[in-house]
Amino acid sequence: MKDTFKDIFTSLTLIFIVCIILPPVLFADIKLNEVLVEPDQSVELLNTSTDEVDLSSWYIDDSGGTTYYTIPQNTIIHPGSCLVFSSNFNFNKASADTVRIFDNTAPPVSTLSALIDTFSYSKSPGDGISFIRSPDAHGEWTTASASLSFFNTIEETCLYFQPITPSPTPTPSPAPTVQNNNNSTNTKNIYISEAMVAPDTGNNEWVELYNDNAFDVNLIDWYIDDIAEGGSTQKKFSLLIPAYGYMTVDIKSAVFNNSGDEVRLLNPLGDLIDSFKYDFSEKGKSFGRESFNNSEFCLQESSKNKANNRCIEELDEESKQINDTDETISLESKPYISEVTKINTPTIDGKNYIEFNSTKTNDVLGASTLSYNHSQTDRKPILNSLLLISTSYSLLTLLSVSLKIKLRNEKNNSVSIHTLPRKLT
């Protein structure tokens, strides 16, 4: 009986050690290795242990609040490898914030939550600039061009790739299911979406890829290259692209010529998957695909890790048309009189023969202000006519008055004769 209790106690102790003590030690080997605040917020985790760690229902959070990101189920991070998570983590750009990683013990808002790693910053270092640990996992935090899915100190991918070993016998196997780490070299619908071939001083070249599939695609040991046999070394990369999502390959050493070149995407076998050519470039501007229904690219304002902007040439043409329309309207518009408040009567000595004063100054098409300044030569015929009319009117008036006086006198004389009394005889 005594031995039985001893065995039970020993078993419980082992369970406690394995389940309670070892996991935190193992979880502590999961490190924040890179943080990108903008444009698309991303967090890179690195497993420094020698064991796989299940990150299912772990949490990525900022310094507080009620919203947080939950890592999907069946997310395994392999020893010595990394995983990159991109989402809207609500990291502050213009002010200080903290990036925190919690295991699946409890959500960040709970007092029981278990903090695994954390990093605080004062503000975003800028578009496409990451906070990184150098050396990886244990070094001091610094800033550098984003290199998600790559080790910070060496130009090699930190993503895990499980080689596919063919079965020695042709035994039938069940139909494969779609998983989040699809890595077929024949993966279809992976496109070059955008490329920065002439970055601003201090920034890296980059190529943005788009996954036009309903499942995540893990590209392992693919290549970015310039024109065939152009002399530049092919850039090997590995990248996990979410379904219908964008991800970017940052190129730390220059590959593309500013005066003209070709951007090519190659699979691990060296097969050409997608490409485009350009004859010129503009510093700080990217070449973006106009549509995934064709292979036309145009110069645009960069839109790293998101849908492309419109072509600069197209926007300039629209702006020119708007300016031309405004200029046409301005040339055709004419002043008008909206309200006449006073009419100055003509005078002989006045400089303005006719003058309209208006209290409004609005414009309308098809009318003009009535304000005339005539010379002495222009006024003379008019003045002569007015004098003639005035003289004639005066004569007619005098004649009319004379006739009235005459008629009145005759009437008075007639009345006077008929009213005289008859003389008596």
Automatic annotation (TrEMBL):
Range of residues in the leader sequence: none
Superkingdom: Bacteria
The LTD domain, residue ranges: 23-123, 176-280
InterPro entries, alphabetized: Lamin_tail_dom, Lamin_tail_dom_sf
Matching PROSITE patterns: LTD
Annotated protein name in UniProt: LTD domain-containing protein
Organism of provenance: Candidatus Roizmanbacteria bacterium RIFCSPHIGHO2_12_FULL_33_9
